[in-house]
Amino acid sequence: MQAFGYTGKILRVDLGTGKITTNDTLKYKDFIGGEGIAMKIMWDEVGPGIKPYDPANKIIFGTGPLCGTGAPCSGRTNITSLLPSSPFYGVASSHMGGYFATELKYAGWDMIVVEGKAASPVWLRIEDGKVKIEDARWMWGKGIFDTQAMVTSFMGSQAQVAAIGQAGENLVNLSVIRTGSSHSAGGHGGVMGSKNLKAIGVIGTGSVKIAADPKAWMELDKYMMSLIGANNQMVVPSHPQPWAEFNNPTSRWTGRKGLYWGAANPPVETGECNPHDMQSVGYRTQKAVFDLGPGAEKYTVRMGGCSHCPIRCHAQLKVPELERYGMDPYVANTCVGWSGPRGVMFKGYKPLAGKTAEETRVIANAVGTKLADDYGVWCNYAQLGRDIAYCYNKGVFKRVLSAEEYASIPWDMLLNGDPAFYFDFYDRVSNKKGEFSHIADGSYWIAQRWNLGDDYWNDKDNKLWTRGGYPVHHSNESGAQVGALISCFSNRDAQNHSHMNYIGSKLPLALQKEIAGEIFGSPDAYDAPSNYTPMNEYKARFVKWSLDRSLLHNSLTLCNWMWPMAVSPLKERKYRGDTSLEAKFYSLATGIKMSEAELDDAAARCFTLFRAITVRQMGTFDMRKEHDQTTKWVTAQEKAKDGSYMKQFTPGTIAMEEQDMQLGLTMVYKQFGWDEKTGAPTKAGLEKHGMADVAKDLASRGLLPA
User: Fold this and answer.
1) Cα distance between residue 454 and residue 443, in whole Å
2) What CATH number has the domain bearing residue 29?
3) Which residues are CB-contacts of 533 (< 8 A; sequence separation ≥ 6)?
C-alpha cells in the first residue's frame, strides 16, 4: 500500500541486544501518528509495574502525517514514555520543535521506538535507511552543545541531533532532550540516560509524498496562511497599526514600526506586518522583547523557529557580555526557556556594572538559559524556580541540608542577584551533588522526601495544581472552568494551548463570545477574564474540544502553540478562522478523506486510550477521586484589596468552587462517553472506539466501572 503523508516505516531499536527492526506504520493509522500511535505502543508493550528507568520501558520519538509535508507549523517531535517526575510514573508526552522531526521523515521514518539498555554509552546514527548504534563513551559527560557538535562532525552539518546533557546522564528527573540551539522536550532526558543513549543523529535525503494534487495543496496552504496570526495565534497587534481595528498591549504580535532586530547587520525593522502580506508573517512576533523586555531589542539578531513554520517565535540573540562568563555570545530560546532559569534567581538580578536593569535582565537571563540548555535541566514549566524560592524562604534547605552542605552553597550570589549563581546551581543539580540536588526530583518527590506538608501544596503562589506535583499551565487563570478542567486530565503540566490560542487571541470580548457560540454552541462557553459564571454544557464541550485538539496536534504533528485556527486577523472574515483545517490538510496529505468531526473522533479515541493507560497504571478506575483532583488553593476564596474574601463567581476572582468543579468533571466525562461517576472509560465506550481488547484487559484487572 502506498503511504502518503506517512513514510510507512517505524524504526525499532533494542539497545540491550543491538537488534534493529522495522514495523509498518499503517497498521496503527487509526491512532493518527505521533502521540496517538505512541499511546497504542505503550498500551501494547509497556505494562503496569514498569518504571521509567527500567530497560523494559520504551521511549518513542514520533512524527505525524503532516510533518515534512510543508503544512504550516508542522515541525514538532512528540516524545512519549513513562515520566520519572510523576508519582505513579504515568505515561506522558513531551515535545520539541526544530528540524529533527522533518529530517526523520526525510530519512524515511515516521517514528523511533527505543527499548533496552546499552552496556555502555552509545548514540544512534540514522542516515536514510542505514541505522547504526555507535560508541558514545567519548561523548559521555559532555554538555548538549558539545554533543551536537561531535555528532555533526561525523554526520555533516545538515544532520539533526536530539541529545541529553549531564542531567539526563545522571537520571535527573527534571531533565530534557534537546535539539538545535533551543528546542527542548522536558521530562524524559533521564529515560534516554537510563538506556545509555546519549544522542540520536539523523540525516535524510528523501521526501514526504502527499496524495493531493500540488495545486490543491498550495491553494489550501495559501488559504491557511491568510488566517494565521502571531505566536499563540494572537491576531491583534500589541500597538496601534494603520490597518488594525483593534490592539492590545499584551499581544505577542509585537511587530511594529520603530521596533527592530537590533543586532542584525544591518538592523531590521519589524514594521507594520499587514495581515494580507504573507511575506511579513515572520516579523510579527518579536519575541525577545516580549520575553525579556525592551532591553532585548538591541541584542536580537533575528527570530528563529521550527521547520515549516512562518511564525519564528525563538529569539536568537547576540550577547557579547556572555564572553566574560566564558560563553559563546549567541543564545536562543522562547517563553519558559527564558523564564524558567530566571525563576531560579527568585530575588531578581542586581544591575551589572555599567549596565541598565533592562540590559542586566537580558545578560543574566542569557547566562542561565545557556547553562540550563547545555546541562539539559528542565524547569518543569517554571516550577523548579518556585520550589527553590519556597524551600529557601520557608527554611526547608536549612532543615534538610547538612550544615556543611548548606554553607557550601553560594547563597550570597543568589540573594545579591549575581548570575554567577547559575554555574554552581546547574552543576550541583545535573551532577547530583549533595542533598540540595534533589530539588530537581520534581515537586511530588521533594514533598515526600523533605516532608513539606499541606502548606506547600496549598500555597497559591507556589502554583501547584495537583498533589501529583504538576504546576499550573494555563488553568483557571486562563478561561475559568475550561482551563481548570483541562488541567485535571494530564499526567504532567497540561501543555494544552488549544484553548489558549482561542482565549488569548486578544480580540474584544464580544467577538470572542460570538465565535465561541459558533464553535461550541453558545457564547456562554467563554467568560470574561476574572468574571466567571457557573459551569455549563458549552464549557464542557470547549474542554473536550481542547483536549482532543491538543492530542490531535501532537499526533499529526502540528504545533499546539499555534493550532487550531479558530480565529484570524482578517476583518473581512469578521476575525473568524477555520477549525476544519486540520482535517483538510490530513485528507489532502494522506488521501484518507476525513471530516472535521471524524478526525476529532479519532483524536478522542487516542485520548480515551491515554485515559485507559492511566487507569491501568494507577490500578484504580476512580479517576475522579484519585487523579482529577486539584490542590485546595484552587477553590479557596481569595482576598480582595480591602482584606475581605471574594465569593466565587464575583468579578475580580479566579477561584473555582468545589461543587461546580465536580459538576464540570461530570459534564466532561459525559462528553467523552466515560463513566460519569468515576471518570473511567467504559466497556461500551472503548468498544465504540474499536478498542475491545483494551476493555477486555481492564476488565480482567477489575478496572472497568460497573
Assistant:
1) 13
2) 3.60.9.10
3) 480, 524, 527, 649
Last residue of a domain, one of 138, 171, 203: 203
Task: Give the number of C-alpha atoms closer than 13 A to the C-alpha of residue 604, restricted to the C-beta side.
Answer: 23
Q: How much is the pTM? A: 0.97
Question: What is the model's pLDDT at position 1?
Answer: 53
Domain that holds residue 643: 481-579+620-700
Average of per-residue pLDDT across 111-130:
98
Strand order in the sheet with 91-96: 19-24, 9-14, 111-115, 59-62, 77-82, 91-96
**Residue 157 covered by a domain:** yes
Is residue 108 within 8 Å of 9, Cβ to Cβ?
yes
The residue type of 546 is: S
Residue 660 CA to residue 624 CA, distance in Å, equals: 14
Amino acid at 249: P
Is residue 95 included in any domain, yes or no? yes
Quick one: three-class SS letters along 566-595?
CECCCHHHCCECCCCHHHHHHHHHHCCCCC
Q: Name the pLDDT band for 706 (thresholds 50, 70, 90).
A: confident
Backbone phi, then psi, for 314, in 5-degree steps? -95, 115
Q: Is the dihedral of CA 518, 524, 526, 529 positive or negative?
A: positive
How many domains are contained in the chain?
2
Q: Provide the edge-to-edge strand list for the sheet that holds 300-304.
A: 300-304, 314-318, 330-333
pLDDT digits (tens, 9 = 90+) for 495-551: 999 999 999 999 999 999 999 999 999 999 999 999 999 999 999 999 999 999 999
What's the chain's average pLDDT? 97
Structural domain ending residue among the three candidates 168, 203, 238: 203
In a domain, 537, yes or no: yes
pLDDT for res 262: 98
Within a domain: residue 691? yes
Closest CA to 312 of 222, 187, 228: 228
Per the structure block, which three cell numbers stand in for 285? 512576533
- Please name the residue that has the C-alpha cell 495581515: 275
As a whole number, mean pLDDT of residues 624-649 equals 94
pLDDT at 304 over 70: yes
pLDDT (average), residues 222-235: 97
Pairing of strands 59-62, 19-24: unpaired
Closest Cα to residue 669, out of 632, 619, 705, 618? 705
Tell me what the mean pLDDT of segment 341-368 comes to: 96
Tell me which amino acid residue 88 is.
F
Residue type, 349: Y
